[in-house]
Amino acid sequence: MLGICCCFIIQLQAQNLGRRIVLNTKNQTEGKVESKTSETVDKAFNKMEEGVNNLFKKKDKSPEGQNESESEGQISDQNGMSSSGQSGELNPGGSSSPSLQTYSNFDFIPGERVIAFEDFSQDAVGDFPARWNTNSSGEVVTIDGLEGKWMVFADEGVLYPEFVEALPENCTIEFDLAVIKENAVLTKLMFIDENQSPNLLDAGNANSTIIELEPIVGNTAIFSFNANGDAVVENTKPQKQFFIPEGEEYTLVKVSIWKQKSRLRVYLNESKVWDIPRAFQAEGKYRFALGTATFFIENREFLMSNLRFAVGQPDTRSKLITDGKFITQGIVFDSGSASIKPESFGVLKEIASVLSENPSVNVHIIGHTDSDGDLSLNQSLSQKRAESVKSALLGQFGIDASRMSTEGKGESEPIADNGSPDGKAQNRRVEFIKK
């Protein structure tokens, strides 16, 4: 979503607009850019002159007919960026993403009901996304080696999803952040009082909480302000997730946020970065927005996709044991694959805990997909995903295989409209039925 970082100006023909591939770059500024976190809580952001192009050029179209699934029970070691479609290769020739076991201490559990999802699939490449608003500029792009569409924000400013109003007391927010070598921008994840001006131009500090991601220097920071605008939380620390290995030009970071009344937890990939008991004011009602701080250095950018808002902490035990059925969209897979993504660990661990504490309970695991793709392939894929969940519960948590049966229903039983990104996100799910 945010800023464009470039070292070379690339002439793009009209048909190439928004198609990007990382080039080798050299630093366009002398020395390191100093962290200026104290400047990032200003009441508004000054717009800078729109930057010229960036370090991307046209990518080749992916060949058709790629394999639609991985082998049964495989744990993810690639970065497909959506739950349906073809998986993309991250950093070709570089390192793969963490395994499920890497996330063994990951306790993030997505909300049980998806209230909004944004993958920009409904937007044309080159346009600012229709469901968003901004006081600056941005566009939808594609990135070589990654599936789907991404929002790039290439300027000083703020932007926010108009389709998400005041957040529930208990909710989760997740998205994929692409960090570009030497070109990343300081990004603000802002929880702002709902009574602030709708265009956020006059957003002050009162009843606000701001999380800063500063990949260029490898820091994160947090600031929280009460109703009087007084800082009640302020801290900065380094974060390893922003490190880009030698020889690679960019990396992906999974950002997960859990707001639970006044408590805030923030995760980058498998690590819990912040766990603040009183980050939010009890009387405050908050909206979510994003912002950048370029410090007037040209061509810094932020890119994001797969933004997911969900409400409510799943009561796994009650729903499975008492109600006899637990539905989750929190077990996610590599694109077009049965490989479980490592950020699913928290949900799998919760289910395994319930089954371990109730040894007489058996479950039927059912996989579901959205309607994208071929009907028969979706049916096969959903079956393999259900089998992967069974294999993970057996291999990672020791749940006896005899207690679990599997089934795939493909796209045949939607619970929401497949005509929207929000509905598709709800339909991509795994169900556990008590037997």
UniProtKB/TrEMBL annotation:
Biased composition (Polar residues): 64-97
OmpA-like domain sequence ranges: 317-435
PROSITE patterns: OMPA_2
Record localization: Cell outer membrane
Disordered: annotated segments: 52-97, 403-435
The entry's keywords: Cell outer membrane, Membrane
Keyword Hydrolase (UniProt): no
Coiled coil: none
Keyword Lyase among record annotations: no
SUPFAM superfamilies reported in the protein's UniProt record: OmpA-like (SSF103088)
Classification via Pfam families: OmpA (PF00691)
Protein name: OmpA-like domain-containing protein
Organism, scientific name: Algoriphagus taiwanensis
